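tool_log.txt
---
The assistant was asked to compare two proteins side by side. It first ran the structure predictor on the initial sequence, then on the second. Raw inputs and outputs are pasted verbatim so the downstream comparison step can read them without reformatting.
(1)
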Amino acid sequence: MKKPSIVQLNNQYIKDENQRQRFLEEENQKKNRFMAWILIVIMLLFILPTYNLIKSYAHLQDQHKQVTKLTKDYNTLTSNTKSEQEFANRLKNEDYVKKYARAKYYLYKKGETIYPIPSLLPK
């Protein structure tokens, strides 16, 4: 086998170049560390607003669900109120009150027989 024919020179110029190279590598490492710290700080600065944004969005979704539920309840109560008002207006009619009392509470006159039919009961 043949020996390699490369010989390393170890003079002052080579030592200075090696030292300059190490210095440049250290400077690059310092710059990289500094940039890494800046990146971490920027990420932390974006985490808090993002968290607040997500929290606000979740709160907004909850409020939207609540508005939907309340709207549905309002519509139900409005229809119930209308039917109750119609019933109250019908109770102002004396003939209707008599029929209602006879059907609902089985009131009868002497000598009468009552045969209740559920489908004919007033509402």
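(2)
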Amino acid sequence: MPLSTVQVKHTPYDTREVLDHVRGTICDMITPYWLGSVPSNFGDLAAGTIKADAWHTLATVYIPITLISLLG
């Protein structure tokens, strides 16, 4: 099938909506004390640059839970 005829299905979620949902998940979740912290204003300029530990926590805990709650 030629690529020009393939239709890509876009999600109905705006990037800002997903980012707000991630922030809400960060604020609402109760996590164990040994789990690295993530800034609750993640994605804002005021949050600054996050370190590798925070990226790891986002990628393994917060973002999967957020996506499951958005798409599920």
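---
observation on (2): Residues 15-37+49-71 form one domain. The two ends are 30 Å apart (CA to CA).
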